[in-house]
Amino acid sequence: MKIGVIGGGAWGTALAQVAARGGAPVTLWARESEVVGAINDAHENTRFLAGVALSQSIRATSALADLADCDALLVVVPAQHVRAVLTETPVGKTPLVLCAKGIEAGTRLLVGEVARALHPAAPIAVLSGPTFAHEVAAGLPTAVTLACADPAIGATLADRLAGPNFRPYASDDVIGAEIGGAVKNVLAIACGVVEGAGLGQNARAALIARGFAEMTRFGVARGAQIETLSGLSGLGDLVLTCSSTASRNFSLGLGLGQGKRAADLLSDRLTVAEGAFTAPVLREAAAEAGVDMPVVEAVCALLDGAEVQAVIGALLARPLTRE
Ligand SMILES: NC(=O)C1=CN([C@@H]2O[C@H](COP(=O)(O)OP(=O)(O)OC[C@H]3O[C@@H](n4cnc5c(N)ncnc54)[C@H](O)[C@@H]3O)[C@@H](O)[C@H]2O)C=CC1
Ligand SMILES: O=C(CO)COP(=O)(O)O
């Protein structure tokens, strides 16, 4: 089974490395010509995943047409670019595995829904979970949710990607797997704020638990299964990204909590902090679904430039309620 990877950022490169285990051929499409050159010439993605010696069986390309002979395509460009890139990709009936975490601005569609609308004949799967790219690329033990409505296709993909230190767990809940990854990025920003503002470990734990309640309310309203939200792609990823400065979303929140301006923190980023794009779309989607998401609203306010203490004060001043 020949795997194609669309997206040469840190995560696309790490997943290409996973798929290339044992010398299996992998084609990796990258947008930047210097990334394509560095991978083909030096077997390293010096821009997005420096220091990792990549398998020689990964061949990088700047031409989406080169993915035409692949048996499955992993889609790993940031969520806001999935539509543009998939529009240009030869897909047909090839299974698409969505690995980006976010909701499309404007349409409020999850990336799997974008893919399904563009390529209705392609089976859709979602790979999501607690997966820092640098750890996966280093071969450290990692488990993910691999969700696909068709169990046979899901099992084939899981078998192809699994390795001694990379364990996909099967699910048929594509929506649930997507919602966990999209929402946790916004909550990770909130946890970074707590750290940056020096609010303590109690506050962070409370935020993880109350944030998870928001994720669950929203997920259930959109048809997700609670078991998925409390699994690897939901709670698992929430715990990871709410606890570590290795998370770009947590780091963004850390800066906000220290009083830096969102515009300044975002302006010179080379890498993506998806939560900053997802937050306003999630706020709209939650309002549309009639779901209360106060932590998400607080993150939106901070991204819009509100003052940290005022936002935290307003969160804590909400009327007392039942858990
Ligand atoms: N880095 C990680 O540890 C993980 C990332 N993800 C998700 O994977 C997705 C990709 O993130 P990373 O690989 O980390 O990216 P990255 O932050 O390492 O690199 C940025 C990526 O964005 C791409 N890009 C920028 N502008 C673009 C455009 N106009 N059109 C298409 N692509 C464009 C760049 O080519 C590059 O591939 C995100 O949704 C992220 O949430 C998921 C799990 C782990
Ligand atoms: O999704 C991730 C880990 O599962 C990566 O998190 P960040 O995008 O916040 O770095």
TrEMBL record:
Compartments it resides in:
Cytoplasm
Its recorded reaction(s) are: sn-glycerol 3-phosphate + NAD(+) = dihydroxyacetone phosphate + NADH + H(+); sn-glycerol 3-phosphate + NADP(+) = dihydroxyacetone phosphate + NADPH + H(+)
Give residue ranges for domain Glycerol-3-phosphate dehydrogenase NAD-dependent N-terminal. 2-151
Q: What PROSITE patterns does the database record attribute to this sequence?
A: NAD_G3PDH
Record bears the keyword Transmembrane helix: no
Superkingdom classification of source: Bacteria
Keywords of this entry: Cytoplasm, Lipid biosynthesis, Lipid metabolism, NAD, NADP, Nucleotide-binding, Oxidoreductase, Phospholipid biosynthesis, Phospholipid metabolism
List each copy of the Glycerol-3-phosphate dehydrogenase NAD-dependent C-terminal domain by range.
Answer: 173-305
Principal location: cytoplasm
Q: Where in the sequence is the active site?
A: 184
Q: What is its EC number?
A: 1.1.1.94
Q: Which family does it belong to?
A: Belongs to the NAD-dependent glycerol-3-phosphate dehydrogenase family.
> What is the recorded function of this protein according to its Swiss-Prot or TrEMBL entry?
Catalyzes the reduction of the glycolytic intermediate dihydroxyacetone phosphate (DHAP) to sn-glycerol 3-phosphate (G3P), the key precursor for phospholipid synthesis.
The entry's protein name is Glycerol-3-phosphate dehydrogenase [NAD(P)+]
Q: Which organism is it from?
A: Sphingomonas glacialis
Gene name of this polypeptide: gpsA
